[in-house]
Specification:
15 helices; 8-stranded parallel beta barrel; alpha/beta; 5-stranded antiparallel sheet; Oligo-1,6-glucosidase, domain 2; TIM Barrel
């Protein structure tokens, strides 16, 4: 395993609860992941990014951490984690652990101590406890909103039953925000990083990084509680992306550099514009950040062009580059995003969508993404062409966004439905016995990993071949990139003089260059050799 591997890596995101169940309780776990590592290895990924496996009440799918140096019994034990890391390394895979620095669970020992402690105590300094405003302190301390809806403040109740101070949570009330101006918080997280590095992880995916950059004075932000939580649209705000975040990142990079080979730091960073994003990629901060532009672009050539150009033209310092991705545990799956149809709910019946067209477009988008310079990330199930499950029963939804907003359509659970492995087994091979924690659509029987491995032209085999070529072709290993003008509905670019990628977004078939050789296509070409709409092709081009 070489140093600086992250510069051209293909990551594979594992949402642990939904990947594979090894003990039959209906939830994915470390034993299940170990049993299916061969799938990720055969796909050709360089590393797996594993969602939080820490002890947690699971009020936000594990992103509410009660103990940063343990494993939730749902997932296994520390020994299971060590075995997973060893098995992954034996398979040529690195392991990135998802860390949540902005907030803990409200069941974390620190927060429980803070609730029992007096106002102004050291225990309360680890979080943001403040007196309320208005009569009897009945109003929140300021106007900061929560990303999950409503105010970012909840009021405590004292031992005598009377209302007490308020505490800050930019996400769910069960996720109180840590105070990163507190030296004890900073020192403790460095211990957490070293604990997992010493166990063998190769780096970290850092959740909601700009959220730790708050103005500790907590001034008003001028935002309504029910406004859309939109950091990318805020030019400057006291609750996000303040300068203090960069002090913390430099300390984390020092920890990463103290190991040989150096540990990798990938950040979830949503900020206002590429200039602010570039600050996170300075040589003494993160190795990469995730580029959200493609995951939010509608299906059109201009939208994809703008998303890609905005990243490629960014003022990136040094060799660091953003990581491309189309989907994640927080995003609507591409098949659904690109499928025309009626927007659905998650409560009654499936919306009417052209999923076949959505799958064709998702395959085209995936092939396009893997041709771009820099790292890329594939979310579990994307390599199978899975769609968003939009008809999950309301009583099964666990996403706290639903409880906060009352809107089941905003639930992220639809992209977290357990993977289908084998059509001939219960829960399609996800669980060894019991039902899965979310039901899988019957139509997924034709999309199982086992069947796609055997089927020429399947999405799995397309992805596998694309990752192989990405590694084999020297043009795709570099940073060269040049747009080609082939019409308003076509996105085309070259990577060096011998490689081209063309995506036809338009309604008319596109005639391919006569001297070019097709390396890979996301779907069948026409009999005349034209590129149909909703299709991407990789071409080997003769020089000149």
């Amino acid at each position: 395993m070489s140093d600086q591997w992250w510069g051209h890596a293909v990551l594979y995101q594992v949402y642990l609860r939904s990947f594979a169940d090894g003990n039959g309780d209906g939830y994915g776990d470390l034993a299940g992941l170990r049993s299916r590592l061969g799938h990720i290895r055969d796909l050709g990924a360089d590393a797996i990014w594993v969602s939080p496996w820490f002890p947690s009440p699971m009020r936000d799918g594990g992103y509410d951490v009660a103990d940063y140096q343990g494993i939730d019994p749902m997932f296994g034990t520390l020994d299971d984690a060590a075995r997973l890391i060893a098995d992954a390394h034996s398979a040529g895979l690195r392991v990135l652990l998802d860390i949540v620095p902005n907030h803990t669970s409200d069941r974390h020992p620190w927060f429980l101590e803070a609730l029992e402690a007096a106002e102004g105590s050291a225990a309360r300094q680890r979080y943001y406890f403040r007196d309320g405003k208005g009569p009897g302190g009945s109003l929140p301390p300021n106007d900061w909103p929560s990303a999950f809806g409503g105010p970012a403040w909840s009021r405590t109740t004292g031992p005598d039953g009377r209302p007490g101070q308020w505490y800050l949570h930019l996400f769910a009330p069960e996720q109180p925000d840590l105070n990163w101006s507190c030296s004890e918080v900073r020192a403790d997280f460095e211990k957490v990083f070293r604990f997992w590095c010493d166990l063998g992880v190769d780096g970290f995916r850092l959740d909601a990084v700009p959220a730790i950059g708050k103005d500790a004075r907590l001034p008003p932000a001028g935002i309504e509680f029910n406004d859309v939580f939109s950091p990318s649209g805020w030019p400057e705000t006291p609750l996000w992306d303040g300068d203090t975040v960069h002090e913390v990142l430099r300390r984390w990079r020092d920890v990463a550099r103290s190991y040989k080979p150096e540990k990798a730091l990938f950040g979830e960073v949503i900020v206002n514009g590429p200039e602010r994003l570039a600050r996170y990629l300075r040589d003494d901060e993160l190795h990469s950040v995730f580029a959200f532009e493609l995951s939010r672009a509608p299906w059109s050539a201009p939208a994809f062009h703008a998303a890609i150009e905005g990243i490629l033209d960014g003022p990136w310092p040094g060799r660091a580059r953003p990581t491309w991705f189309l989907s994640s545990h927080d995003e609507v799956r591409p098949v659904t995003r690109y499928a025309p149809g009626t927007a659905g709910t998650s409560t009654a019946s499936s919306p009417v969508r052209d999923l076949a067209l959505g799958q064709a477009r998702a395959r085209a988008a995936l092939l396009l993404m893997l041709a771009l310079p820099g790292p890329a990330c594939i979310y579990q199930g994307e390599e199978l062409g899975l769609w968003q499950v939009e008809d999950l029963p309301l009583e099964l939804l666990q996403d706290p966004i639903v409880a906060r907003t009352g809107d089941a359509r905003k639930s992220r659970d639809g992209c977290r439905v357990p993977l289908p492995w084998d059509a001939g087994a219960p829960t399609y091979g996800f669980s060894t016995s019991g039902p899965s924690w979310l039901p899988q659509p019957p139509a997924w029987a034709s999309l199982t990993a086992a069947s796609q491995r055997r089927t020429p032209g399947s999405t799995f085999r397309l992805t596998k071949r694309a990752v192989e070529l990405r590694r084999e072709l020297p043009e795709l290993a570099g940073t060269g990139f040049e747009w080609q003008q082939l019409g308003a509905g076509v996105l085309a670019f070259r990577r060096g003089p011998r490689f081209a990628c063309l995506t036809n977004f338009d309604a008319a078939p596109l005639e391919l260059p006569g001297r070019a050789r097709v390396l890979l296509a996301s779907g069948p070409l026409s009999e005349e050799g034209h590129l149909p709409p909703g299709t991407t092709v990789w071409l080997a081009c003769p020089p000149g």
